[in-house]
Design goal:
alpha+beta; 2 helices; about 55 residues
């Protein structure tokens, strides 16, 4: 894949990377999502994408 035709590269296909990509695409930014494995199978898989302020 040639990635030079994009405005921004997002590294990581977890919940944060995916949400960021969707928002930016909706605003007209050309993004490419870079993920080493399957999308959603990294840290977001283990915690089901739960953002827990009570654990910070």
């Amino acid at each position: 894949m040639i990635t030079s035709n994009f405005d921004l590269h997002i590294i990581g296909g977890g919940i944060i990377g995916l949400a960021t990509a969707v928002i930016l695409q909706a605003r007209g930014v050309k993004v490419v999502l870079l993920e080493a494995n399957e999308v959603g199978q990294g840290a977001s898989f283990g915690n089901a994408g739960h953002i827990a302020p009570e654990h910070v």
